[in-house]
Structure formats: structure tokens, C-alpha cells
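New to this. Explain the following:
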Amino acid sequence: MKIIIIIILLFLNFPSYSYVASGTGMKSCNEWINNNKEAANNITAKGVIRASTIQWIRGYISALNFLSEMNIKKYKEIRGIKGENLILTLQEYCLENPNNIIEDFTLDLWSQLPTIESD
């Protein structure tokens, strides 16, 4: 019985909205830039890096939008985000912030997008 109570108390200490991001978004900007440099002569590898980065960022932004709409009935306009522009913007960000991670860039980008109120 004591073990069950301890387990319940442990779960009560963690907020229900906590999360752990994983994948491309956890790479440092420096690591991402270096991966791109290493793949510069390999079109397939470069394409995979770019595609996975774009998909990770779009997926993360979509998740943020979902949570935002559920909690505050607002979301961000994301239809104008083009893949190649996203990569160029990320490259600029990473050159200026090599120790940040891709998630930092994504959160910064999301915060700058126009807000739309849900019906």
C-alpha cells in the first residue's frame, strides 16, 4: 500500500503538460551546421538532413498550435512557411546562436508568427 501511495505522489509532482522533445530539434545549431557541411557533396544526405529538419520544425509548430488552440483558443498562422526559406532562416539563426538547439529556433519562430483567434 505504501508503494502505491509513493507512486501516486510522484506523479502528482509532475505537471500534466510537461513534455520531452526529441529528434532533430535536440541537435545544437553547431552540430546541425557541421552535419550540413559534411553532407555538402552528398546530395542524398543533404536532402535527408533538410527534409527531416523541415518536417521536425513543422511538426513541432503544429503541436504548439494544437496546444495553444486547446488552452487559449488562439493559434499561429503557419501556411506561409516555405521549406527552403525555413532552412535559410535556420542557417542564419544557427550561425548567430551556435550553442542553441533547433528547438530554440522553432520556439522563437513560432512566437513571431501572426496569431489567429479560434471561433
